[in-house]
Design brief:
By secondary structure, this protein is of the alpha/beta class. Helix content is 43%, strand content 13%. It has helices spanning 31-39, 46-58, 63-76, 80-91, 120-130, 149-154, 165-174, 188-198, 206-218, 240-256, 278-289, 295-311, 318-330, 333-344, 349-357, 360-366, 389-401, 444-453, and strands at 108-112, 135-138, 177-180, 224-231, 260-267, 275-276, 372-377, 382-387, 415-418, 425-426, 431-437, 454-457, 468-472. It has a four-stranded mixed beta sheet, sandwiched between helices. Strands 6-9-11-7 form a four-stranded antiparallel beta sheet, sandwiched between helices. Helix 10 links the parallel strand 4 (224-231) and strand 5. The two termini are 18 Å apart.
């Protein structure tokens, strides 16, 4: 991908963009001085940023100093050059992944900013491997109301997300894809800052989000990356404008690092698919790899996969790439790769085979199951206008599907099945939600919260729109005459 056009001047990025000039003073600065500079709105030089990251990694930065710097960045922002320098420094804080030269044009990956019911990675990684790509996917855990890819995979007995760089290479050789956790050897500075951001109310800082995402991807040596930037009621960034700003920053910083980045804007007001919760989402991912499953999930998987095949030169157009991804979902190739990945990452061979060749009923027997189920019914007639993802996620979190602290245990069988879809006409008394409980029963306040998630209207039934809104690319990357999706 060619570098994007003229970079935006400092200060254009909202929530990000230092207003003052870069401090020209020579020589290393102490952390309090660096914090003061950013607090007062000055730009930090590359040397300043590297000094801060070095102090984070070697332990000389105190926790309060890290928190103070993160808040200064959150309030004063960073311009494009600062954000690029921070991303590079984080990426270089640990070991770099090295691959055979022959893989250079095959390495691709996808990242999501997080949502409810988002199981795209579980399907997309093996689908891309079936299309001839190498996918070294480094994923995260859920925190708060959003689900984590690693937690979903760990609901499959035996699945091991801890893999060394050498083991990752072996997995890519055997399977073509792997989904692993962030090693302490890879981007250790980001691991420290990520944990600090969660407890310092700086999670939504555009420069910090950008640097965190792209630093992990920079060490993978990728040919192309697609970032699914979600917006809406259950996303980190509630408005499309905020998501677009992050998407643009990701694309521009990626170009500065020599990485082909596209950013897809997708809505996250309603859960993706029909299932929320770890084992339920694994089951739905398997359905998608059967060539079935919810249309919105399949649509997003094929679109994002098609974009990656196009960006990496393995398809002449996005539509051609999407068709190839759809084909491997329909012919069983993606499911075969998923089975091989499960076995290679620690799942018993018979269990992996049962999950990937069994019926939906058989799969449910093989995965952790909730002890109780409760169905909620529509209180009035109407057409489903919206099923709010956030209150649904909050209740499931309270029931044990999410964690409030790093390392807190989860109840993988807790979740919910949407029995109806957006645009569907309901009659009063129709079951619309099935909650899977693995502990206390629903309380009355929780039932009220869940019933409030169902929004009905008087209009006629309609086709639910795709969650995909737009693909953000640097203008030179778009082929002449290629329409914006």
């Amino acid at each position: 991908m060619e570098a994007p056009g003229t970079p935006r001047p400092p200060g254009v990025l909202t929530g990000g963009g230092s207003q003052g000039p870069a401090n020209p003073a020579p020589g290393p600065k102490q952390l309090p001085e660096l914090i003061r500079l950013k607090r007062d709105g000055s730009r930090l030089s590359e040397a300043d940023i590297r000094a801060f990251v070095r102090a984070v990694v070697d332990g000389s930065a105190q926790g309060v100093q890290i928190g103070a710097m993160l808040m200064a960045i959150r309030l004063r922002g960073m311009d494009l050059e600062e954000t690029t320098a921070l991303t590079q420094a984080l990426a270089e804080s640990g070991q770099q992944l090295e691959w055979p030269e022959a893989w250079q044009g095959q390495l691709v990956d996808k990242h999501s900013t997080g949502g409810v019911g988002d199981k795209v990675s579980l399907v997309l990684a093996p689908a891309l491997a079936a299309c001839g790509c190498k996918v070294p996917m480094i994923s995260g855990r859920g925190l708060g109301h959003t689900g984590g890819t690693l937690d979903k995979l760990e609901s499959i007995p035996g699945f091991t997300v801890t893999q060394s760089p050498e083991q990752m290479r072996g997995l890519l050789e055997q399977v073509g894809c792997c989904i692993v956790g962030q090693s302490k050897k890879l981007v250790p500075a980001d691991g420290i800052l990520y944990a600090a951001r969660d407890v310092t109310a700086t999670v939504d800082s555009l420069p910090l989000v950008t640097a965190s995402i792209l630093s992990k991807k920079a060490v993978e040596g990728l040919m192309a990356l697609v970032v699914d930037v979600k917006f809406g009621g259950a996303a980190v960034f509630p408005t499309e404008a905020q998501a677009r700003e992050l998407a643009t920053m990701l694309v521009e910083v990626g170009a500065g690092l020599g990485l082909r980045v596209a950013a897809a804007l997708t809505s996250m007001d309603t859960p993706l698919g029909r299932s929320v919760g770890h084992t339920l989402e694994v089951e739905e991912a398997l359905l998608c790899m059967d060539g079935a499953g919810p249309p919105d999930l399949r649509d997003l998987v094929t679109r994002l996969g098609g974009d990656l095949l196009w960006l990496s030169g393995r398809a002449q157009a996005q539509a051609e790439g999407a068709a190839r991804v759809a084909a491997v979902l329909d012919d069983g190739s993606a499911l075969g790769r998923f089975e091989r990945m499960l076995t290679a990452q620690g799942v018993d061979k018979d269990l992996a085979r049962g999950l990937c060749s069994g019926t939906p009923a058989r799969r449910r027997q093989l995965l952790p199951r909730a002890r109780e189920q409760e169905e909620l019914r529509a209180g009035t007639d109407g057409t489903v206008e919206l099923i709010r993802a956030l209150p649904l996620a909050f209740v499931l979190h309270e029931l044990g599907a999410g964690r409030s602290r790093v390392g807190e245990p989860l109840r993988p069988a807790v979740g919910a099945e949407l029995l109806v879809g957006v645009g569907q006409r309901l009659r009063r008394g129709t079951p619309w939600l099935r909650v899977h409980l693995d502990g206390p029963a629903l309380s009355d306040p929780q039932r009220r919260t869940l019933q409030g998630a169902l929004v009905l209207s008087d209009r006629a039934p309609f086709a639910a729109p795709s969650p995909f809104v737009e693909l953000v690319l640097p203008p030179p990357a778009r082929a002449p005459g290629e329409p914006q999706q």
